[in-house]
Structures are given as structure tokens and as C-alpha cells.
Design brief:
Blueprint: H1 2-22, H2 28-36, H3 50-62, H4 68-76, H5 78-88, H6 95-113, H7 132-152, H8 159-177, H9 181-201, H10 210-231, H11 237-243, H12 245-260, H13 273-284, H14 291-315, H15 320-354
Helix pairs in contact: 1-3, 1-9, 3-9, 3-10, 4-6, 5-6, 5-10, 6-7, 7-10, 7-12, 8-9, 8-10, 8-14, 11-14, 11-15, 13-14, 13-15
Amino acid sequence: MLFITFFLMFILSFGLVGTVYYFGIMSAQKANEAILAKQASHTKPTSRLGGIACIIASLILIFFIADKTILFLILSALPVFIAGGLEDLGYNIKPTLRLFAAMISGAVAIYLTGVWLDNVDLTILTPILTFPPIAISFTIFSSAGVSNSINLIDGVNGLASGIIAIMTGALCFMCLYFGETQLATVCIILLGSILGFFVWNFPNGLIFLGDAGAYTFGHILTWISILLISKHPEISAWAIFCIFFWPIADTVSAIYRRQIKRISINQPDRMHFHQLVMRVLVIRSDGRIPSNLANPLATIIILPFCAVVAFLGTIFLDNNFYSILVIIFATLIFHGSYNLIIHTARSKIFKRRIRPK
């Protein structure tokens, strides 16, 4: 039954996303802004409405699931879906407003489900989270932060959708392991939906996920995790962290980098991990690898690491100690690789400059 659900969802998402691409449905203003943006990695106008298409496809099947909690969860995603959708359709919705919409979605999810994080397997926070106002605020902030982190990795062909697929698959395994068939079915639907989009997005970047897709997938996946932890306290919050590691690590790195430079954390730059990988591929190959090829190659390089960390999270799903070790090693590899990439790119440029003519 799950396989049939997945197959139907894949076909439906593939068809709807393909329709958006085939008919060139897009906001011309946003498509042109994306090309001119500082962090741009594409050179021609591309629709950002792929996420809206695959979310709509998901909703068609999700509403057949007669489960009040799941319907509440979907309803809670409306504020962030609308805010992201308006941005994708050409309305200038500021990043702070989109983040605020994500926080509203988190608050609505808490109100509808009656669930929030009161234990994250961190001793220092345990007594603090016993106070509901603090725990609710922490949950809202965490939910919005993860939603936003997914959006930051969109733009490189297949990266955001590939990571979403990895996270969804890992959460699906956890749901099945603990007998949460309704949540597992939602994961299967989301997995089929994002893979239906993935084939249009990778390797050629024919269509983007957009803010609506990134924020909404991030919100729903975060709340599937929260519901799992609330129903099964034996699940390690650190194992969940493993599943969401890459977007969180990239976002924390971006915030730290911008704070050091004393610029706004909302100010875009070209120093995200995936952007550095693309540039170093072009630089180290002396231009033999063009930027349009470096784009999907960056995804191919990054996704296996994300998959390994998420896989280890599912292996150690009830073990705090080993999950923390995975996070520590993953963090060391992330920052070590990041600095190595910067050093590699700079040394190549330096050698080029001092090379005798």
C-alpha cells in the first residue's frame, strides 16, 4: 500500500511540476531578480513555483488520510506556505516577514496539536523547558529556524530537494519502526512529491523549489519530528538533529559568518558551503568545469555526506551518546571541509597571480 501511495504521489507531483515548467508559469520579476542576486547560481529566468506545485500535489493525497493530527499539521503550514507563495509569485515579502510567518505556523501547530518540545535531551535545558511558556517559545523558534534553513540551500540543482528526500526517508523509517503508520504515510507522500520535483530540478535546474516549497516542507518535517518525540520519548533529540544536520549547520555557519563581518544575518552572500564547492570546482579545473556543470556536481559531492549523517541518526535513534558523537564528527568534517575549500581556492588563485608570464 505504501509503495502504491508513493508511486501515485510521484506521478502526480511529476505531472504538476512538469506542467508549471512546460507552460513557463513564473513571476518574471522574481525570475530576473534571482539571476541578478548576489548568491545567484543560474543565468536564465527559471520558475520558482515548483514547490507550490509539489505541495499542492501532496495535499491532494494527504487529505484522504482520516487523521485529525495530520490535518491539523497541514493547516498549521498555511501561514508559511502563503508567505512563501506570495514571495514566489512576485510580491516582495521580506525575509523577516517570512520568518515571522514560519513562527506563526509553529504557534498554530502547537495550538492545534497541543504538543511542544519540553525535553531535548540536553541537561542544561531540561529544567528550563519544564515551564510551558519557555518550552512553547523554544518550539516556535526551533520550528521556524529549521524551515528557514531549508530555504537557504535552495538554488543549487537538486540540493534542497535531495536533502529533503533524505530527511523524509529517515523520518519515514523512524515512523515505521515505532508503528506510526499515519505519520509514515505522510512521509511517503512527501517523499514521492519531492522526488517528482527532483527529476525536474536535477541536474539541469529546470525549475526551483522556491520559498513556499522550502519553508513548507521544512515546517511539516520539523513537526513530524516533534510529534514523534512527543509520542515516543525514547527517541533521541540528537538523532533527530542528525537527520536535520546539514541545513542547520549551514544556517548556523551563515549566522556566525555574518556576525563576524558585522552585517545583517538576512544579508545574502556567496559563502555557503555549496557555493564554495561550485567555485572551487571551476577554479581548480582552470575553467574546464563550467559553472553550469559545477552546480549539479556540488550536489553530488554534498548529498552522500548528508545521507550518511541521517542514516547514522536512524541507527542510533534511541542513543544520545552515539548520536552526539555523530553530530560532533559531522560538525568537525563540515567546518574542516569548509576551511579546506577556502584554502584550496585561495591558493590556486594566488599561484595563478604569481605565475610568470
